[in-house]
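Example for tutorial group B:
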C-alpha cells in the first residue's frame, strides 16, 4: 500500500487527508497507458502505407495523327486579261458559271482591228500585183536578151525589181497576220474547262492592255500544299523506296475550315525540290477529288497524317504532373517505394503522353499522385492495361 497525504485548506483550519492507493492499481493503470500509446503508433504506421493503383508499362506500337496547315488551290487557275485595248462590247457569261474550253467569254470592240486587217490585205494584194508584173517583165526581157536586142543589164534590173516585190509580199503577209492576231484578241475565250470568277468590267467599260477581265478555275480536283519536317520527309521517302508510299498517302485526311472532315481521301503526288534552310521543312502536294465543287480555290484547311511510332510508352496524363515546363511521374521500385522521375513527351494524344526512355515492366502510380511523394511506401494495386489504353493502340 502507498500512503498519500492531501492537505486541504478551509478558512484558517488545515485538514490533512490521508489517501491509501493500492500499488497494484497504479501498475495496471500505467500498463494500460503504455498499451494505448503503442497501439496508436502502430495504427499510424499502418495508415502511412497506402494502397495505390499502379500501372505496369510495356512498349507499344501506336499510330498518332499529326496535323498540318494546308493551302488549298485549284488544279488550274488562270487570270483572263485583255491583250488589246478597247471597249467591252458584250459579255457572254456570268460570274460562277461553268464554261468549256474555247467558249467565248467577252467581245471587245473590233472595228479598229478589222480595218487594220483590211489594210494589210490590200497591201498584200498590191505586193502580189507588183510581183506578177515583175515576172512578166522578166520573161519579156529574157526574149529580147536572147535575140541580143537589149543588153543583159536591163534583165538584171528587172530581176531586182521582182526581188523587191517578193520582200514586200513577205512584209505584207506579216502585217496581215499581226492584224488578224490583234483582231482575234478582241474575242476572249476560255482557256480550259472551269468556273468563271468575278467580272470587274461590265459592258461598255474601257479596258487597256493587260486589264483583268475575270479568272477561270478548274476545281474538279484541288491541290493541298503543306510542309513537313525533314524526319517526316525521310520516313515518306523510305516508305516510297520500299513500295509503301501508296499506303502512306492513303492515311491523309483533309479537315476543312469548319472542322468537318472532307469525305474524300487525298493522294500524295510530289514534294518540293529542296529543304528550307531556315525551317528545315519541305513542301508536300496532295491531290483531293472535288466532284461536288465543294472546295474552292484559295480555301484553307488542315491535313491530318497518321504517323506510326514503335517501341514507345503511353503515360496517362492523370499520372503526371508538371513543374516549370518539366513533366514528372511517380515510379514504384522493387521495394514498393515511390520515386519521382522526369521525362520528355514525344507527343500528346487524347489523354496520354507518348514517351521513350522507360523500361518494359516499369511501374508508375496510376492514380492518387496527390497522396504520395518521393520515398513514400505503398501497397501496389495493379491496374489492367486493357482498361487504360484506348483503341488506337497497335499490336505489342
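The residue assignment follows.
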Amino acid at each position: 500500500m502507498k500512503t498519500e497525504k492531501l492537505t486541504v485548506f478551509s478558512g484558517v483550519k488545515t485538514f490533512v487527508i490521508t489517501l491509501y492507493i493500492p500499488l497494484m492499481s497504479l501498475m495496471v493503470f500505467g500498463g494500460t497507458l503504455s498499451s494505448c500509446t503503442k497501439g496508436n503508433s502502430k495504427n499510424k504506421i499502418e495508415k502511412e502505407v497506402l494502397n495505390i493503383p499502379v500501372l505496369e508499362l510495356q512498349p507499344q506500337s501506336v499510330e498518332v495523327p499529326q496535323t498540318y496547315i494546308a493551302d488549298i488551290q485549284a488544279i488550274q487557275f488562270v487570270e483572263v486579261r485583255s491583250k488589246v485595248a478597247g471597249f467591252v462590247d458584250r459579255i457572254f457569261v456570268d460570274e460562277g458559271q461553268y464554261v468549256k474550253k474555247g467558249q467565248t467569254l467577252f467581245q471587245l470592240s473590233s472595228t479598229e482591228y478589222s480595218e487594220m486587217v483590211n489594210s494589210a490585205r490590200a497591201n498584200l494584194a498590191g505586193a502580189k500585183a507588183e510581183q506578177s508584173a515583175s515576172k512578166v517583165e522578166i520573161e519579156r526581157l529574157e526574149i529580147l536578151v536572147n535575140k541580143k536586142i537589149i543588153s543583159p543589164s536591163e534583165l538584171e534590173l528587172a530581176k531586182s525589181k521582182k526581188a523587191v516585190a517578193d520582200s514586200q509580199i513577205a512584209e505584207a503577209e506579216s502585217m496581215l497576220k499581226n492584224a488578224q492576231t490583234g483582231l482575234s484578241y478582241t474575242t476572249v475565250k476560255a482557256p480550259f474547262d472551269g468556273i468563271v470568277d468575278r467580272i470587274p468590267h461590265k459592258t461598255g467599260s474601257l479596258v487597256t492592255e493587260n486589264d483583268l477581265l475575270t479568272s477561270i478555275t478548274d476545281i474538279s480536283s484541288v491541290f493541298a500544299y503543306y510542309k513537313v519536317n525533314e524526319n517526316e520527309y525521310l520516313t515518306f521517302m523510305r516508305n516510297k523506296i520500299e513500295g509503301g508510299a501508296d499506303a502512306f498517302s492513303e492515311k491523309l485526311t483533309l479537315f476543312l475550315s469548319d472542322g468537318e472532315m472532307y469525305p474524300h481521301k487525298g493522294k500524295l503526288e510530289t514534294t518540293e525540290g529542296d529543304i528550307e534552310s531556315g525551317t528545315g521543312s519541305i513542301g508536300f502536294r496532295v491531290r483531293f477529288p472535288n466532284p461536288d465543287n465543294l472546295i474552292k480555290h484559295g480555301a484553307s484547311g488542315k491535313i491530318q497524317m497518321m504517323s506510326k511510332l514503335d517501341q514507345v510508352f503511353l503515360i496517362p496524363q492523370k499520372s503526371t504532373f508538371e513543374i516549370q515546363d518539366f513533366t514528372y511521374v511517380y515510379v514504384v521500385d522493387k521495394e514498393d517505394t515511390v520515386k519521382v522521375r522526369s521525362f520528355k513527351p514525344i507527343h500528346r494524344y487524347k489523354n496520354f503522353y507518348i514517351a521513350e526512355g522507360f523500361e518494359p515492366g516499369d511501374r508508375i502510380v496510376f492514380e492518387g499522385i496527390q497522396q504520395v511523394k518521393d520515398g513514400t511506401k505503398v501497397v501496389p494495386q495493379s491496374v489492367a492495361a486493357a482498361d487504360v489504353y484506348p483503341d488506337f493502340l497497335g499490336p505489342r
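The chain has four domains: 2-37, 50-62+311-387, 66-74+218-306, 110-185. Compare this with the pattern of hydrophobic and polar residues in the output above.
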